[in-house]
Design brief:
Distance between the termini of chain A: 11 Å
CATH superfamily of the largest domain in chain A: ATPase, nucleotide binding domain
Largest sheet of chain A: 5 strands, mixed
Radius of gyration of chain A: 22 Å
GO molecular function, one term (chains A, B): glucosamine kinase activity
Oligomer: homodimer
CATH topology of the largest domain in chain A: Nucleotidyltransferase, domain 5
Pfam families (chains A, B): BcrAD_BadFG
Number of strands of chain A: 9
Protein name (chains A, B): Glucosamine kinase
CATH architecture of the largest domain in chain A: 2-Layer Sandwich
CATH class of the largest domain in chain A: Alpha Beta
InterPro entries (chains A, B): ATPase_BadF (IPR002731), ATPase_NBD (IPR043129), Euk-type_GlcNAc_Kinase (IPR052519)
Keywords (chains A, B): Kinase, Transferase
Structural class of chain A: alpha/beta
Amino acid sequence: MDFILGIDGGGTGCRAAVATRDGQVLARGGSGAANIRTDLTSARAHIVEAARRAFIEAGKDPELIKAAPAVLGLAGANVGTYRQQLRAILPFRESRVESDAEIALEGAIGAGDGAIAVLGTGSAYRVRRGGVSRPVGGWGFQVGDQASGARIGRDLLEQTLLACDGICEASPLTREIMAVFRDNPEDVVEFTVAAKPGDYGGFAPKVFDHAARGDAVARRIVDKAVADVEGALGALDLREGDALCLLGGLAGLYAPLLAPRYRALLREPKGDALIGAVRMAARVFGHDAEAGDG
Amino acid sequence: MDFILGIDGGGTGCRAAVATRDGQVLARGGSGAANIRTDLTSARAHIVEAARRAFIEAGKDPELIKAAPAVLGLAGANVGTYRQQLRAILPFRESRVESDAEIALEGAIGAGDGAIAVLGTGSAYRVRRGGVSRPVGGWGFQVGDQASGARIGRDLLEQTLLACDGICEASPLTREIMAVFRDNPEDVVEFTVAAKPGDYGGFAPKVFDHAARGDAVARRIVDKAVADVEGALGALDLREGDALCLLGGLAGLYAPLLAPRYRALLREPKGDALIGAVRMAARVFGHDAEAGDG
């Protein structure tokens, strides 16, 4: 065995990296969505395509993917039997299928103890101690994902309509949002009929911006969101010296707002999820293979 | 003109009542959905069918609907130009198209000053003073309908998952709910993927029941919901002597929990929305017609 594969797949696309067995990345390749929960066959095809493209990009024969062991981090791999189903049909020499959060954790903090908080359109946490990692949160927009961009945007529209009805105080931000919807609450409702989490999440940076400028409604929403993040961090049992990485589009907005005890743990992520998959492949397959080949 | 029509139409069905011009109901008729926002043509057909059935049930020639003036209360009539579009194609002698909330208000409190709070799967309020009525709330499950059964059910699942993650306290109720979902948070998430507001609302009576027995999580959810109801009632500018009617499936659960100043205004509803449409028709068309015929 000369090469290992790291693969990062999700609902919007699939990325692969081919690396030497000590984890030096040689080249990358990309393809379409790899959603194992909704379309396993197409997910497999895109995973293989991304891997072949990475080999071609590295100037290697793409048929060599069959000789390479792979670590795959895939959204939905933690649910049901999708992981086992996929493993059975992959063409790689060996396949280890992890959740997307697991390879993001590995990419961000490496192999040691620590945690990630993914704060983007959704929100999710993962903590590792003594080699064992566990997820916290990440249950989706409707009944989870507290402090996510989507939840913040939804809170904003709710507060805007309450202000419109005279039930809660209005603010410069709620007035600005009403103007976006032509001062017609029915237009807000029409928006919500088709809105996806990402559509709500589009309002989140504006809420942080107005909160920083003292807008009362924005501050209430952001204060609640920060409390929700700290509540989840509290459930991670972090200790002094642990690494904590904030990931996702809102990471930079939350970092300065956290309590000092959490700010003290913050680190820049070492790498992204794809790098995490590569590193895990080097850790899991690189040494074993060496021992086996020796 | 000998007869008047009252019509109550919505997404699940359409009811009509034929009455003498002083508002004495002679007979009723029903038909299918009358959703003017999604299918105006079919809504018109069901409205006409319900009216004809009411006349037949009363032993009258159904062709007489063309000589009868009608008040229609229809979900969605307060939005866009649906009201005007429908009015232009109705076969009745004259048609007055109101929102479903307006005829519910008329049915509950009659023609005077007062308000209704509709507390069921959704929530909405309507207040009338000096003959002018206005809506408050009712903006739907995603960004409105505070204190509705759907919102209470959604809150319960959210608190249950937070307890499952160790972020918030568990309670007998959250443990009972986790057992419903086979102690698997992923099963909760699967439920939310397809759940409609009514599906969430199914949990609401259980939350009130556990709150009454002291369950900490249930009490927090119900306390918040009661505060939301009182917040909306506060925006109605109710005065001593005003009539306040609680309608909807949760009315009886909320009534004893409201602050004394609101409990003092509570009245049993005089009649339902269909009766409201008939009464409004008698008020609007009965006297005018008499004067015109005389």
